[in-house]
Amino acid sequence: MALRIAVAPNEDGLGTSAWTVRLVKALARAGSETIHKIYVLVVSDRLAAFHASKYHGLPVEIVPLNEVRRPIRLVKRTGEVDVQATLESCLRGYHASREEYRRALAASGLSAAPDLFVDFGVPQLLAALRSQCAGRARTQPRPVCVTVSDHAWSDTLGRMAQAAGLLDGAMESGLEKMRADEALADCVFTFPEPLTPAAAARYWRETLGVIVQRLPGVFGGPEVARRWAGGEPRAAIRQNLGIHDDLPVLHLTGGGTAVWDDLLAGLLDDFAARPPAYHVVVFSPAERARRGVQPSWSGAIETGRDRRSPRVIYLGDVAGETHHVLFAAFDVVCTRAGGGTVGDALAFGVPLVLVEEGGHPQVEAIRKRCVELGFARGVTLREFKRLGRSVFEKADGSLQLAARKDAEIGRYAEEDLARRLIEAAGSR
């Protein structure tokens, strides 16, 4: 048996690409004797570059879908979603988007349909694959198609449109087609709460009529960091980050989206004026470029430092891995409640400070559930803008810490999922 597997992350941020890395590596381990090739299908140059360095020595090929100009991608402004621009792009433009994916798949160089297709929120590609297979001989088994996600795009975008009172005929038409495309999956695997709130899982099952299976936990965990670091990860990663003392570490990130591109400027200026009594690891390519910080490799981690803020570290790439492994070194994470970053923090038991993201019902549902379950403190966008570092800093200037909640949620769910997917693909 020589299985061919295709995996497609969506293009809104880096969260699903990080999940893709976890699953692809698990598939390669579990299918070392059965998998011929794993194809990672991406649209943007950004994601192509991100994935290019992650799979050394594995049977993985990055497939760029250059013909696609309109993937599902939320339009962001400072701290929140630009709802009208997002709906114009994602719903009014959905029919054109799925046609772009159909042409891109045909031109991709994949000479035959894969045995297994996994999408992380790319319903257009699921529809294109089903269309491509429609003309195959009945004797040829069609691929197993599986969605892995924390939400359905038709649910999230539909809620946005209804809340804003913007759902017109053209948008409803795009929404109906998106629902039909999402319903083409043989099965959807959703994450446990808080990453996939109960209402999101119910939407897949009751509205779309898809078989829903809850994963037993989040992807990854400390053993991933241990394998990457070659030993006790916290000390090794701190050293790679250029941290040579025992001060705690705050991770500050917008989760690979543009939502905090402007929001962090004042906060980082404040760190320069009043150096923190802790280390700050920031992921903000826009702020790094704006401040003229030149990245360089410190061991296996690409970092940059602003000479005006010696305890602020600007994070770049990680050799052969995602930022997931770095969570072993973090003591607090301040972010918006995107599923990828929240999942990484939960996998390592790192306390969260979650900032409101206006106009995004799915992210806000995750934030609310994390607070209810005791994984996070919630902060409104207005508070974050007004209070700045006070949302995670005590009056004496020290970092506001909380007890880690190890083993509060299952980990390494990608390992079990990979075995089940390979079994399903092999038994077609």
Structure description:
Helices cover 40% and strands 19% of the residues. It is an alpha/beta fold and 428 residues long. The strands form three sheets. The chain has an eight-stranded mixed sheet. A hairpin with a 6-residue loop joins strand 13 (301-305) and strand 14. Helix 4 packs across helix 5 and helix 5 (123-134) packs across helix 7. The longest helix has 16 residues, at 15-30. The radius of gyration is 21 Å and the shape is globular. The mean pLDDT is 93.
Estimate percent helicity. Answer: 25-40%
Give a short account of the largest sheet: 8 strands, mixed
How much strand?
15-25%
Quote the distance from N terminus to C terminus.
12 Å
Radius of gyration, in angstroms, nearest whole number: 21 Å
The strand count comes to 17
| Whole-number mean pLDDT | 93
Spans where pLDDT lies below 50 across 5 or more residues: none
- Specify the overall morphology: globular
Main β-sheet, spatial strand arrangement = 12-13-14-11-10-15-16-17
Secondary structure layout:
Blueprint (H helix, E strand, L loop, with lengths): L2 E7 L5 H16 L4 E8 L2 H8 L7 E5 L11 E2 L2 E2 L1 H10 L1 H13 L9 E5 L2 H12 L9 E6 L3 H12 L4 H14 L4 E4 L7 H10 L4 E3 L7 H8 L3 H8 L8 E5 L10 H10 L5 E5 L1 H6 L5 E3 L2 E5 L6 E7 L13 E5 L2 H10 L3 E4 L5 H12 L3 E4 L1 H7 L25 H14 L2
Parallel strand pairs: 1-2, 1-6, 2-3, 6-7, 7-8, 8-9, 10-11, 10-15, 11-14, 15-16, 16-17
Antiparallel strand pairs: 4-5, 12-13, 13-14
Main attributes?
globular, 428 residues, alpha/beta, seven-stranded parallel β-sheet, 16 helices, single chain
Write a concise synopsis of the structure shown.
This protein has helices spanning 15-30, 45-52, 83-92, 94-106, 123-134, 153-164, 169-182, 198-207, 222-229, 233-240, 264-273, 285-290, 339-348, 361-372, 381-387, 413-426, and strands at 3-9, 35-42, 60-64, 76-77, 80-81, 116-120, 144-149, 187-190, 212-214, 249-253, 279-283, 296-298, 301-305, 312-318, 332-336, 352-355, 376-379.
